[in-house]
Each structure stands twice: as structure tokens, then as C-alpha cells.
Amino acid sequence: MSSSSFDRLDLPLRTDRLVIRASTVDDADAVWRYRRLDDVSRWLTTAPTDAEAFGAHFADPERLAVTLLVELPGTGVIGDIMLRLEDAWAQAEVRALAAGVQAELGWAMDPAHQGKGYATEAVRAVMAACFTTLGLRRVHAGCFAANEPSWRMMERLGMRREEHSRGTALHRSGEWMDGMNYGILAEEWRSLTV
Fold first, then answer.
1. CB 64 within 8 A of CB 23
2. For the purposes of burial, counting CB atoms within 10 Å of the CB of 139, is it exposed (0-12), middle (13-18) or buried (19 or more)?
3. Tens digits of per-residue pLDDT, 95-144?
């Protein structure tokens, strides 16, 4: 997703309790504060082991272009959301019609602020923007099956389980783990918000 896609979102997004904004290189320390914790990093695709390595990883322009930050006013950054615009699979003759019609979401929250509905509230706001402002037709997300809080949140958001794969994801611990994939279509989202 390019920064122009974030421009189309009219950031920051605001909920009753949160502000969701684009990230900058200067946010690396705030994000590192919770992403370095084992309760968070064990589920992440990439988990640099020190602040310097994380700073370099976070500053990658491609990463910044897909990373939204979740702020709790008066507290600061409490989480981040990946929003990656994607093409849907399509046959060759209609491939152009499938360009940029869906998004993958991912998230990480500071454990000190979990259990208060902040992640659900923030991701719901991003999903709403995907289906309204961006006009997408589908949003999907995945996680390790052992990360029950993550897939339970997807279910609370109205996403349907599309796959429970067995032993398909190699965790950095060396264990082959099950995976869970969820999705929701624009018409399903609209039926939930009417």
C-alpha cells in the first residue's frame, strides 16, 4: 500500500477513545517498547532482538507505508495495525479488475492495554475505512491458531474462519504450528453495521 492510499484514508481516524494515524520513523521507540515483549513478539512475523535492529526494520519505507499506529490520548502509542492493500486472484482476462480490491490486516497491542477493547475498536475503525473510504471488496487476516485472543477478536469483528491449517507455519521456536485465516466481504460488513 502506498502512502497515497493512506492519504485516501483521511488520517487520522478517530474512534470514541482512540486516534489511528500513519507511522513515522520517529515512532520506532514507542513501538519497540511493546513489540520487544515476549507476549507480543512470539506471534510476530519479524522480531528483531534489540532496539537498533528494530529501528532499522521499522524505518523501512515499505513497512512505514503499511503501518498505522493506535494512540490512546494522554497515553501515547498503544498498538499498531498493518494495512496492506492487495490484488485479488483473478484469471488473466480479468486481472485488471482484481487490482487493489482487498486488504490484509495485522496488529500488535501493548499488553498493558489489552483486555479493554482497544484492539477491537481500532481494527473495527480500519475495517470500516477499508469498506467505505477505500471501497474494498474483502479484508482478511491470519494468525497462529495458538494465538487465541487474535482469532477470537476476528470473530468478534464479524470475520468468518476461512481456514484452519494443520502444521503449516514454522514458528521461530522450531515448532510447526497450526494457522487460522479469517475474512469478511464488504456486503457481510454492511450487514453487520446496518
1. yes
2. buried
3. 999 999 999 999 999 999 999 999 999 999 999 999 999 999 999 999 99
Contact call for residues 137 and 86 (beta carbons, < 8 A): no
* Domain that includes residue 139, residue range: 3-193
Tally of domains within the chain: 1
C-alpha cell at 81: 495495525
AA letter at 120: T
Domain CATH number, residue 50 = 3.40.630.30
Q: Which three cell numbers stand for residue 8?
A: 485516501
CA nearest neighbour of 175 among 140, 141, 145: 145
Counting every residue, how long is the chain? 194
Cell of 73: 490520548
Return the amino acid letter for 40.
V
Kindly tell me the burial class for residue 101, based on how many C-beta atoms sit within 10 Å of its own C-beta (0-12, 13-18, 19 or more). Answer: middle
Grouping H, G, I as helix, E, B as strand and the rest as coil, residue 141 is strand
pTM to 2 decimals?
Answer: 0.94
Using alpha carbons only, what angle is made at residue 19 by residues 117 and 54, rounded to the nearest 5 degrees? 90
